[in-house]
Amino acid sequence: MQKDDIKNQKEKLTAKCCQFCAEVKKDPKQLIVGAIILVVALLLLFFAFKESDKPQEKVVPQPVVEQKAEVKEPVVEPTVPVAQPKEEEPEDLITESQEELKPVKEVIKIEPKNAVLTFTAKAAQDFDYQVFYTVEREVWFDPSHVVTHKAKAGTHKYSIVLPVKEIFRLRLDFGEAPNKVTIKDIYLTGSQTADLNDFTLYDFNQIDSYKVNKDNSLTINASGNDPFMIYQKALLAE
Asked: β-strand 179-190 against 169-174: which pairing, if any?
């Protein structure tokens, strides 16, 4: 844009100079005025050229510095623990926990105050056991000292409680009909204890045959109506 302006000014000055020269020819007095105007024009041209020759300053855009917003850390307020409501336990769980806290009671086996005859027997049919006993060192069995206990066919374990604390002699009857019985593990327990498994110490009545087996059991075959066996050894010191 500045070069176009200077060009226009040159053209105007040239036109004026030509016009001035024409007028000077007509009026010589105007030479002085024209000289002054010429000097001024030359000065203007000089300064105009000087300004045009100066390098234009380039406007360097300044970098825009982004200002980062200051991030403030959130103020963490101290948390106060809130008491949580206690969940109710199911009744069944409470019962189980209470049961677990209960002390375990020691099971104490209380022996009966009476004498007890125990044994295991296998019979071919049902019948009634009869246990005769004597007391106070009596030798003969009295019908008043007897305990009857029902037996079932098959193998069963029996515990026959006697109504006394001590007995002197013992007799075991096997019913009133023919029968086959296998008996083992005969003991006297309770207030009086004795091992009665030595079958050589027995007397047998109305028993056709008997046999001691490998497992130390005794098998008897009875055909009479009153089979029994008596333990010969006294159970109390004489």
From this structure: unpaired
Quote the pTM value: 0.54
List residues bridging with 128 in a β-sheet: 150
Nearest to 229 by CA among 209, 202, 211, 208: 202
pLDDT in tens, 143-174: 999 999 999 999 999 999 999 999 999 999 99
CA–CA dist 162, 117 (Å, integer):
7
pLDDT score of 44: 76
Class of domain 115-231: mainly beta
CA distances from 112 to 89, 109, 117, 193 (A): 45, 9, 12, 12
Residues 6+ apart with CB under 8 A from 201: 231, 232, 233
- What amino acid occupies position 207? I
